[in-house]
Design brief:
Strand content: under 5%
Helix content: 55-70%
Largest sheet: none
Number of helices: 20
Structural class: mainly alpha
Oligomer: single chain
């Protein structure tokens, strides 16, 4: 399916959904898309069952990912998708979304805007307009903006958010254009939020170890707080499956048993099995028994335990006792 173009996938999905449902979807598409999809539909004579199933599954996965991102952002989506689909497939879905979905979502300019700028733009808007825009924003940011309104307006906006069921794409497009025009007084509409800790971490994850060490060393001298933030994002707990078995065993010997038990709470079976395969049968039995007696656990506590495990991994890596894979190949010295 990697070689099948998006328009053809859309056409096959339309065929699968049937003419009645597809007709309703067509009404919501731009004219240029309608023409392209219609052309593909007209030129498809037969769809293989396995091709159809693959496209339906991809559609479901993408919808799940979109929902997770809207609910809690990229990191939240990655966490849930890792558990549901496995690390590799989750990464593929997120990558596809980054390419086609995030830029197409309505009110993207509001999602990227500084909260103070957004507050200035929305403060004089009608409650129904504010409610609609907040529905498309990150929950944390929407809450921050809502809290800025007078108390009597907060309840009215909240009520409208709770009663919105669907809105015409034409109405959304008109409102979006009005908001973008108003933002021209505060921000440059042609700019995007770029860079930051996450971007730097992603870049450093793809460079060689020596390059990474040089950059981190400089950051530790000039901006130690930034260096710590970047280091915390360079390797996640889920990435432990990329380690060599011998390296994993070295890590597990250094990790506190309570931290390991807490870190495994709620992770995918793939990660659990990977860890268990690198422990003795007796250790696995004890760990499983302890985990069975664990009650409900705060997500923050799990994440803190995972960070402590990651800290052990990075310490061993810095000492040269284990090897973390990097984007560029290391030079082999004989």
């Amino acid at each position: 399916m990697e070689n099948v173009e998006g328009i053809k996938k859309a056409a096959i999905l339309m065929i699968t959904l049937g003419s009645e449902t597809s007709a309703q979807i067509m009404k919501l598409l731009p004219d240029s898309y309608i023409q392209k999809v219609s052309y593909e539909i007209a030129n498809i004579d037969y769809v293989k069952p396995e091709e159809r199933d693959a496209i339906i599954n991809e559609f479901i996965e993408m919808q799940q990912a979109r929902s997770y991102i809207i609910d809690g952002g990229i990191d939240y989506a990655k966490n849930l998708l890792n558990k549901a689909l496995g690390a590799q497939r989750a990464k593929e879905v997120i990558d596809m979304l980054n390419q086609i979905q995030l830029r197409e979502r309505p009110f993207n300019i509001a999602r990227k805007a500084d909260p103070q700028q957004l507050k200035a733009v929305l403060m004089n808007e009608q409650p129904q307009t504010v409610a609609l825009i907040l529905c498309y924003m990150q929950p944390e940011k929407a809450a921050q903006i809502l809290a800025e309104f007078p108390i009597e307006q907060q309840s009215e906006i909240a009520e409208r958010i709770g009663t919105i069921s669907n809105t015409s794409p034409i109405v959304i497009e008109k409102i979006e254009k009005v908001i973008e025009n108003k933002f021209s007084n505060y921000v440059d509409n042609d700019t995007e939020t770029v860079g930051g800790v996450q971007t730097l971490a992603e870049i450093l994850n793809s460079v060689g170890r020596s390059t990474e060490k040089n950059i981190i060393s400089e950051l530790e001298t000039k901006q130690p707080e930034l260096a710590e933030e970047v280091k915390a994002k360079l390797f996640t707990f889920e990435d432990i499956v990329t380690l060599q078995e011998s390296d994993v065993q070295k890590v597990l010997r250094q990790v506190n048993n309570d931290d390991l038990m807490m870190a495994l709470k709620g992770v995918s079976e793939e990660i659990k099995n990977f860890i268990f395969n690198n422990l003795s049968s007796r250790q696995v039995e004890t760990l499983k028994e302890d985990m069975q007696f664990m009650g409900p656990t705060r997500l923050s506590a799990v994440e803190e335990a995972q960070q402590r495990v990651v800290a052990v991994i990075r310490q061993l890596d810095e000492k040269g006792e284990i090897y973390l894979r990097r984007g560029e190949q290391d030079v082999i010295i004989s």
